[in-house]
Amino acid sequence: MRVAEITDAGVRERLAAxxxxxxxxxxxxxxxSDVPELAAMLRLLYGAFQIEPDDVVTDASVMLRLARxxxxxxxxxxxxxxxxxxxxxRYPRDTPLPLVEWGVNFALAKRLHCYLLLHSxxxxxxxxxxxIPAMPGSGKSTLTVALSQRGFRLLSDEFGVVRLSxxxxxxxxxxxxxxxxxxxVISRFAPDAILGPxxxxxxxxxxxxxxxxxSTVDERHTPAQPAVVVxxxxxxxxxxxxDSVPKARAFGRLAVNSFNYEVxxxxxxxALGRLVALSDCYELRYSDLDRAIDAITLFVxxxxxxxxLEEPAS
Amino acid sequence: xxxxxxxxxxxxxxxxxxxxxPEAVTSLSSPEWDMLLRSARSARLxxxxxxxxxxxAQAFELLPAPIRRQLVAGQLEARYRRHKAVFLCxxxxxxxxxxxxxxxxxxxxxxxxQGLSLADGRMPADVDLMVPRQSLDDAERLLAGAGWxxxxxxxYDQHYYRAWSHELPPMQCAGQALELDLHHTILPPIGxxxxxxxxxxxxxxxxxxxxxxxxxxxxxxLHAAAxxxxxxxxxxxxxxxxxxDGLVREFSAKDPAFWDSLYRRACLHQLGRPLWYSLTLCCRxxxxxxxxxxxxxxxxxxxxxxxxRWPLLGLASQTLPPVDPDSEPxxxxxxxxxxxxxxxxxxxxxxxxxxxxAFRKGQRSLVAWWKGTRIPST
Lengths: 314, 378
Fold this sequence. Notes:
The structure holds two protein chains of two kinds.
Chain A: H1 8-16, E1 20-23, E2 28-33, H2 38-45, E3 60-66, E4 77-82, E5 91-92, H3 96-111, E6 115-125, E7 128-133, H4 140-148, E8 153-156, E9 159-163, E10 169-170, E11 176-179, H5 181-189, E12 199-202, E13 205-210, H6 214-218, E14 225-234, E15 240-244, H7 247-256, H8 261-264, H9 266-277, E16 280-286, H10 289-302
Parallel strand pairs in A: 2-3, 7-14, 14-16
Antiparallel strand pairs in A: 1-2, 3-4, 4-5, 6-7, 6-8, 6-9, 9-10, 11-13, 12-13, 15-16
Chain B: H1 2-5, H2 10-20, H3 30-42, H4 46-56, H5 65-96, E1 104-106, H6 107-113, E2 126-130, H7 136-145, E3 148-150, H8 155-164, E4 171-173, E5 179-183, H9 197-202, E6 205-207, E7 212-214, H10 217-229, H11 238-254, H12 258-269, H13 272-286, H14 292-301, H15 306-319, H16 331-348, H17 351-371
């Protein structure tokens, strides 16, 4: 049963009891909460996800709680609990969804050392992955989401999950987080896309989330093989500039922009090396999203289809 | 063991049971596995759990993927931290070599250096190194020259550490993932228990290629016990008890005279009481094997008076295990933790010093609350 098939009240009940358990692909997440308004937000943004049974093993279980005492009434606050610990400061009550999403991302980034976690968006087409590493202000999220609205399948907007055994990219599906101007850009670019409520005045500015569709969610266990790496930079003064990036340099840039490269050491070196060896690496400076998407589509089609990885032994 | 475990909440019960008997995992349901993994992670024992399951429970490869991947994540993080600890030690050995003084590794780093199996899966957060007191300033100077910096603390903290504590503030260095804690003894010198520091050095032995030394086996156990029950508030420190269980098992297996040595050294250092608490809980929770003869001497001669031991065992039972992953720490647990924090302070310094320290801390807390910022605790 998908989340959208139960009512807001149904979601609220689950959140208050055993929680809403979601299989995001590379990880299973559970959310519990006593904040009533969170239910409708989650139902909108996780609508296409299946509700997993309560008794599965989770990779991250978070609990969003109304603060106790005076902070329940006077300038009410909420707090995020992770396995009996509260990793963040309290937040105002009007930002429940961003806090939950940041909490889950925080937990996953710290724990999923079974994979190499790149800080990148990942989409795929025809089984070929496009890894889009995140540089600050690069417009990575905008580009990743835009690609997912033009024929590419979204694997993640934040975590490039690389399987250590064969460097395939794994989906880690979460509502895609858009910030500030990006929200308007995507609204215009994809008028049919389901966007959640806007949260102004968060630490990252205004934040909104994109819901994923059923076809994306249903492919959450379908990996993609490395094919293309694109280092994007949105620059309104540049029409379109494309450079090839030498593989060694691409390796370095990916490694420093990773959540856990250092922790994994030699395993990360091997997995990332294999990924880069199999990928065509580019740097793209653009102001026109459509043109960037066309270029990336071309890269994927050009990617050497002869380099097919063997299926790993299961 | 089962009868004493029933006073613990289920998540702690399962964690301890599985640590003592890894084969018990075959009877766990999915929700119990979920709790076990979360509790182990919270207690920083996920890597140890992996190590025990991978070696002892034959069915590790048959575990479902969602369970295996979390255990493997623990293994990989532990591997990283171990590597970083070794890297730190080698770097510090080079820096301190000119002084020609004994460099005694304590705790986690010493378990790694000795190649003890209890080091498998541990997640050290820092490296503890003990040097003679008269060499402390020179050591600090050499380390500073190599880029090691003391954690930024205010003048009061600096005084606290240098005058009253057994260690300097933690030291950090660019390029080092772990911190270095430089000790000159194992308990605060103004504390209630005063182990014989010179005897610690005299009984230490070289390890590996001889750049470092480690305490003798009995002293290692006593240090771990003292660290837990004399110098900490016990909160969430179950892993320290797991260490003590591991040390005792490994050392007693290698040396039949270990128990005798442990008893004698406990008398020498006057650390019988923390040893009593440690072994009592280890036996209750982790089935630590203690031979009858040793047990009768240790548990009788070092037994604290009832007025001390009942409260402390009760408080420790509630605070040592990790907090229930599904809820915030209960008011009871927070209260017990506060009591144990006071106890640790009481043991750490004489009453007048304690009063002054409490006053200064209270003052600083008020200022921080006023400014709405958080401060690290001393």
